[in-house]
Design goal:
This protein has four helices and 13 strands. The protein is 23% helix and 51% strand. The strands form two sheets. It has an eight-stranded antiparallel beta sheet with strand order 1-2-3-4-5-6-13-12.
């Protein structure tokens, strides 16, 4: 009887420990896992939603990440607020993601910078959807960076017109053309008077292996929809 009672007490103690100690330990493990995947930031908060049974096996229902001034591989972000779901902490896997990245900057290998005021990410890990919103200031900054790298000068003016028209003013010259998606899933500026000499605005790279699906010029700037296989980012 005493042995049975002792077993019951031990089970209760282990249960209480699991409820109160494991969540903290799991948060620490999750933070280490996120850092190990290449994510860094300030004021970073990583929180786990998991039952004790899941915690013991280093799995979780959800992992929420909040951070500022963050970096992930070549991406720089002013703020990150994302949730990963169906988590495996040891192998750093997850089934799906949803959240928002604010003031995103990406340095492309060609020497110019792509930036967007907001990127909303959602969907399965293997084919997450990115809703990329560029403000007029973002479009001017990207065009300025691309113009400097590809044309030798930054345009003094950039004008977007629905559905796909864009013009760049460089000194006394205006380059008018249209935005177009290429077969590689990139976004190009195709000058109307220089056939075959498209200028890349956003290209899939090893560091950012996205594929563009559609774009729309709006009064608020440029909206781009892309997909990405997040497994390729490690």
């Amino acid at each position: 009887m005493r042995g049975c009672l002792g077993l019951i007490v031990l089970s209760l103690v282990m249960g209480v420990t699991a409820w109160f100690v494991l969540p903290t330990a799991l948060d620490a493990a999750a933070t280490a896992s996120v850092s190990g995947a290449g994510f860094n930031g300030t004021n970073t908060s990583v929180r786990i939603e998991a039952s004790p049974a899941q915690a013991l096996s280093l799995h979780a229902d959800a992992l929420a990440i909040h951070s500022t001034n963050a970096t992930f591989h070549e991406l720089q972000m002013a703020a990150v607020d994302v949730t990963l779901r169906d988590i495996g902490l040891l192998d750093r896997t997850f089934a799906s993601i949803d959240g928002t990245l604010t003031d995103v900057h990406y340095q492309q290998p060609g020497g110019w910078t792509f930036q967007a005021s907001e990127v909303t990410v959602s969907g399965a890990r293997v084919s997450a959807r990115l809703d990329i919103r560029l403000s007029p200031a973002d479009v001017r900054a990207v065009a300025s960076s691309v113009g400097q790298a590809s044309l030798g000068a930054a345009p003094s003016q950039v004008v977007l017109s629905p559905p796909d028209r864009i013009s760049l003013t460089l000194g006394s010259q205006t380059i008018a053309g249209r935005l177009s998606m290429d077969s590689q899933g990139g976004l190009d500026l195709v000058p109307g008077t220089r056939a075959g000499s498209s200028i890349a605005l956003l290209r899939p790279t090893a560091g950012l292996p996205l594929k563009l699906r559609s774009f729309e010029i709006t009064a608020g700037g440029l909206d781009v929809i892309a997909t990405i296989d997040l497994r390729s980012l490690g």
